[in-house]
Specification:
Blueprint lengths: L2 E10 L2 E11 L4 E5 L6 H8 L7 E6 L2 E2 L5 H6 L2 E3 L12 H10 L18 H10 L15 H13 L5 E5 L7 H17 L3 E5 L3 H7 L2 E6 L2 E6 L1 H5 L2 H9 L4
Parallel strand pairs: 3-8, 3-9, 6-7, 7-8
Antiparallel strand pairs: 1-2, 1-4, 4-5, 9-10
Length: 248
């Protein structure tokens, strides 16, 4: 098991965002987290990745307790996350966006030598851009990419840090149905080729059911179901959560 989340709770003032959430993710799995708006999905990802401090519970990654570690240390252990809202450097080139992330994993990173000696990361950055169809745009400013291309670039940035566990928060948000199908197939292909484990938040149920090995369902900060897609699809609690919980 690569990730273990045990009885995690998180409050924001009087709001309980997560209430005793527990689950485990096996290495190599595609594990999706779904639920209505406000269910706590992004909060869960932010707690796991170290961006938010949990109020209770434990988190283990590859057998190591990472509870309370800052996000940069969690990332260096091999856990990378994208965001619900695209998070890139718009004023620099597409290649430089990926290069900065890749450089953070080189031996020179953080040392005085890195001020004048740039690590040889261009080859790995170019391979990522090719995989996501961005090679022809490598010299363009990131701000000039289309929305779908920016989502791909953010995934490239996360992959450039050489993770073993990749957390994607709504990677197809804002894409057309055709773009969503293409993105789903591409993500599945890249994850398989690199031997990664994927933890996914996604609103498009066709994406979730088509890509997931297991699915966890949150409602009002609590887990109401967990299992393979065929079980989740017919679970009465899940159906009620979506039909009665407003737009997802």
């Amino acid at each position: 098991m690569i990730l273990e989340v045990e009885n995690v709770g998180k409050r924001f003032g009087a709001l309980t965002a997560l209430n005793g959430v527990s689950f485990g993710v096996d290495a190599g799995q595609v594990f999706s987290v779904i639920g209505p708006n406000g269910a706590g999905k992004s909060t869960l990802f932010n707690v796991v990745s170290g961006l938010f401090a949990r109020d209770r519970g434990r988190i283990r990654f590859r057998g190591e307790d990472i509870t309370g570690l800052p996000p940069e240390r969690v990332n260096r252990l091999g856990l990378a996350k994208t965001f619900q809202i695209t998070n890139i450097f718009p004023e620099i080139s597409v290649l430089d966006n990926v290069r900065v992330a890749a450089q953070s994993r080189t031996p020179e990173s953080g040392r005085l030598a890195s001020l004048w000696r740039r690590p040889a990361v261009d080859a790995s950055a170019d391979l990522l851009l090719q995989a996501f169809g961005l090679a022809a745009r490598r010299d363009a400013h990131a701000r000039d990419l289309s929305h779908g291309e920016q989502r791909y670039l953010e995934i490239c940035i996360a992959l450039a840090t050489s993770p073993t566990l990749l957390l994607l928060d709504e990677p197809t948000a804002g894409m057309t149905p055709g773009e969503t199908r293409d993105a789903t197939a591409l993500i599945r292909k890249v994850v398989a080729e690199r031997g990664l484990t994927l933890l996914l938040i996604e609103h498009d149920m066709s994406v979730v059911m088509g890509i997931s090995d297991r699915i966890a369902v949150l409602q009002f900060g609590e887990m109401i179901a967990e299992g393979p897609p065929e079980t989740i699809r017919t679970d009465a609690r899940v159906i009620e959560a979506y039909l009665g919980g407003g737009d997802d």
